[in-house]
Amino acid sequence: MIDIHSHILPGFDDGVENLHESIRLGAELQKCGFSSVIATPHIKDGQYVFDKDSVMRAVENLNVEFALAGLE
Fold this sequence. Notes:
This protein has 72 residues and is an alpha+beta fold. It has two helices and two strands.
């Protein structure tokens, strides 16, 4: 299964607040049978303002942290 709408990037929006929560959520998703997660942070002028590069760096960093935590 693939989760196609997730606020798993730490500190980006109203989703997880920190890396610990991201890893915990990733572990729970894997335990429930999810093989992939698509990070979909809110982007809203004046409230959630992020550029593509910062989102892509956060995804890359989270993938590294997931690998270190033994998550696939």
